[in-house]
Description:
This protein is an alpha/beta fold and about 400 residues long.
Amino acid sequence: MRILIFTEVFAPYVCGISSYVEVLKKGLEQLSHKVVIVTSDPTVEKAKFLDDIIRCPAKPVKKNKYGHECKCSGDMKVIDFICSYKPDVVHIHTDTKIGYMGLEVADRCKAPVVFTIHDYFPDRFASDSSDFIWKIKTYFEKRHFIDMLDTADAVTSSCSRADIFVRRAGRKNDVRLIRSATDTKMFDYRRATPDSIAKTRANLGLSQQAAVAVFAGILSVEKNLEFALTAFSKYIRQTDNIQFLIVGDGSETEYLKKLCKKLKIADMVIFSGMIPNAKMPDIYASCDMYVCSYDDGLMSMSFVEAMACGLPVLLKEDDEKIAYGIIKDGTNGFVYKDQEQFAEYLKKLASLDKDMKNRIKKIVRNTIPKDAYASMAQEYLDVYLSLPKKE
Length: 391
């Protein structure tokens, strides 16, 4: 099959969607299918095609969820070029301008559309947005999401909560659940050595002795990092010897840094900024646990990668009890209900000796199926093949 994948972000941009698409591309190609990625890139001045990736020029957009957006989504020359690949299926991973470009290509090529829900947060916008701007952005966020749902021939997601997002948007699409997967050969803590771990920690400004909790992803409102930072300020002391590493960038970066100073925990929290995905296995191998504090998220690609590197995940309980379907509580992570319990798990994991931490890494790692990305690709292929052909 010839598959066109549309995503507003792709490597070297670091985020869960970028990693997800990269893993899916690899899996589909191993199944002998042709995959071309269409994405936006603020570093190119005109559309560029290389290594089966079409990079469209992007413009910076302040407080946009990715910090930029495609600026040639209506360029007919670019669309004509993309259409020349005559796709059998168009797979869209975003409701932004690149997503609309995908709809245009699918319509012109008479190709069926798959829409994968990675997020849908009407309240994802920066904390310092005015009420007016917040409402305007929320309106368009919902409108774009609905446009994708109304056009798609199939809808997929990595988490059952996507069903709730669809219902909130007033739609009744069936959502096929396909779990996130990662390359377990790349994300493997056993590739790290004591020397490489010490070097990574030194480069990040981390203590060689402290237990390190890590979060990786776009720093935006829905990640709810304010919850984790407030918990640190209330319940974690210097004598607990725990540091919090935050990897990534986004609309909330400056706010979160100021919050750390206000809460007087700046010396316990390290902001690394964006780090290339190729270096993330070393980062995870240098940490002890992974932190999720969002209330309404899906199955984060970053914590799947962290688990492949042996890190137990601390995941916030949700009203729908979806967390228990993602994390095996007490085996590959812990589901916490409030800030106090979150801090208790942090301190419990931090207090373990080296042998116990290594045992936990092995247990967590074994909960991730080997070559799961190949299974994910096959599940998507089954979806593609089930789609009706358009005339």
